[in-house]
Structures are given as structure tokens and as C-alpha cells.
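Field reference: sequence -> structure
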Amino acid sequence: MDQNNTSLSRDRVFDILSSPRRRYVLYFLRQESSPIQLTELAEHVAAWENDTTVEELSTQQRKRVYVSLYQTHLPKLADSGLVDYDEDSGEVAIARKASEIDRYLGEEPDSPAWYRYYLALAVLSLVFIVASAAGLVQAAVVAPVVVGAFVLLTVVHAVFRWRNDSSPMEFEE
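Structure field:
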């Protein structure tokens, strides 16, 4: 069933992401630049779940994850259009549609690291305050400039967030 051209309902997204195993599959496939074999994917998921390395996995641990991926998780992800899964060849890859659920995985691509801007402004404010204490800048100017700079940065940050949140992912109701 190809659902790459349809939107996912919120309930469907939450159902898909309710399984840590499916979340890890999506995470792992995002790191891969080309399709990988189901056996390799199962090994990495099993190693993650068992907090060990692929080399130290038991046959039972590998098999348990492989079977659940093959029978349940990959078909569900493929039906949703989030992964490309070829049962005949055993190849699995992340699908383009997977980027639609990034906001639910806590990933914000192309989002600035705002803490860096606030830290830089705090350091510059400290320098400005020290310059005022040394008599290089008038004390009456320091407070309005420092407060104004933080207000301006906060407004820019808020507008950035508002613009990104004002175009939410399309969902079926």
C-alpha cells in the first residue's frame, strides 16, 4: 500500500511513534545514506535495545528483533510511507515523507542555536558594564542598551518561532 501522497493523521503519527523500536528504526535509517539490509538494521536495533555491541549479540537477541521488524514494524512504517521497504530484497531506507514527523521526534532542522546568541549577548553586555565601571561609557546608557538588546533578541527569537509554528504540518482530521 503506497501512502506517500497522503497525510498522516495525528493519531496515526502518535501510534507509529509509540513504539521505541520504530522510533529507533527511523533514527537509524536517517543516519544511512543508502538502503541497508533488514538483517543489518535488526542487529543495530537489537544492540541498542540490549545496551551492547552488534558483535556481542546472541542469536536469540538478533532473531527476536528481526522477526518483529519483519512481521510488524517495517510493514507499519512502509504502509505509512515513512520507510521504503522491499520485502523481496530485504532493503530498507528512510522515505522522504519521514521528514514530516520530525517535529514529533524533537528535531528542528535549520533551527538556530538560540542559546549561543543569548550567551554572546550576555558576554557583550558584561563587557559594556565593565566599560561603564571603568568610566569609558556613561552609566546612564548601560541599562537601556543592555535591556534593549535582550528585548530585541527575544523578539527576534519569538518571531522566528511564530513563523515556523504558523505553518504546521498538514494533518487529516
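Note: Helices lie at 10-17, 20-31, 38-49, 59-79, 114-133, 139-165.
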